């Protein structure tokens, strides 16, 4: 399913080299992470809780909260260096180059503003016609056009998550990071979200970094998986090879996913 | 399917709230507070509607008279109509309190927002400056400013505002810090929105509801502080009608003409009560939901 469009001559959508994140003076929380994602490629980032998945996502979006800081390495999105980048560079990168869908959709939309206003604001940032962009984005993620007139609290968790995917559709980022976007949602909603994500990536041609601890969800959207354990990248392999991996963390995840499979 | 969870948003806040509240717990405090404020507003306008004597028109033959048909609330030691003075003092006393509050906000809001968002050394320096001012007792600092500017109502407004803003700035900073850590602020930044847009559209709407509560509660305290200064003779100067100044004028005649003291006294009491009730009512109304939805 993964589309390896990348060739040697193309700039990787995301290129991370020896990236380390730490509270200065303490043991690194992310330890020399290195991986590349080709344009249009969909990659799962998996690992047990607390292994640094969300921290990686935050670092790549420039959302690390002090005292956390990038202490070494390089990270390039579409050829733009992010480590030590000036705020102006970050502003150009955020939205157009990288966008993130958060774990908890409930808090990711501004509560006091209608969906239309929030999506239209996004459209104006990238210079699109707000009216048309909002309508077509909502349609793509299979939401009723009336949803635009609602406030976030009037929507279910899955609908809010789809609104965020619609936001990504408007922004058309080079790489979309989805940080456990289906946590806390029921399985039916989960499937809808994953379908919307896939559709969004198809339509825009974005690369997708899908962060999750749930291999079943990862298998729906991505083929290649990166496995993290204790802040280190321990495996980079297709999802079907994880069971035979030399990394214990990858094998454990595969075994857990296998044990949870039920035959209906 | 999931679309059934939708609710109709039309005229969202007021009708729903009133309907659900009417049964269980009525916002009586808020209502009384608003009615009192409306009453004061009406009083302030009444010179345009009714034929009242001028507030400093003297009738020396009727000095210290109790309530009569000609003077419904009596007269003071110079024979001035107390009702006219009470009404004439509404825009002065309430206006001064509101002006002081506006001045306090104009300083504390940008100060707190910039301090919270700049962080680091800028935050440290700005907050230490505020701390230094907060270290002075409020009235002492206000007295110093008035001493410098000369006793007048304007000077007392500036003095109170200068002594008052740091505590508000600290509050604004704390509110902005907590709002700025919310995920939707991160999401807004991630869309590439400019800093000012994030602040105006995503952070400030979260800060304003709790701030509105504090403002209405503090307006009461500011009103009291300004009246105290006028009572001490360093606020509004005679013959300007002002409640605190009227209390001061009434002091020597307390036994002869207690109405002179009671009239402005009740006015101050009710004004403070009104702002407190509105503040408390707003708090009860807004406290239940966070993040805040207007």
Strand content of chain A: 15-25%
Q: Beta-sheet strand percentage of chain B?
A: under 5%
Proportion in helices of chain B: over 70%
CATH architecture of one domain in chain A: 3-Layer(aba) Sandwich
Can you tell me about this structure?
The complex is a heterodimer of chains A (264) and B (294). Chain A has a domain at 24-108 and 174-262: Rossmann fold (3-Layer(aba) Sandwich), CATH 3.40.50.300. Chain A has 264 residues and is of the alpha/beta class. In chain A, helix 3 runs parallel beside helix 5. Chain A contains 8 helices and 10 strands. A 6-stranded mixed beta sheet of chain A has the order 6-7-8-3-9-10, sandwiched between helices. Chain A has a 4-stranded antiparallel beta sheet with strand order 2-1-4-5, covered by helices on one side. The two termini of chain A are 25 Å apart. With 294 residues, chain B is mostly helical. In chain B, helix 3 packs antiparallel against helix 8. The longest helix of chain B is centred in the middle third of the chain and has 37 residues, at 82-118. Chain B starts with 12 loop residues before the first helix and ends in a 7-residue tail after the last helix. Residues 1-16 and 19-24 of chain B have low confidence and may be disordered.
Index terms:
heterodimer, A: 264 residues, alpha/beta, Rossmann fold, six-stranded mixed β-sheet, four-stranded antiparallel β-sheet, 8 helices, 10 strands, 34% helix, globular, B: 294 residues, mainly alpha, 71% helix, 0% strand, elongated, disordered N terminus
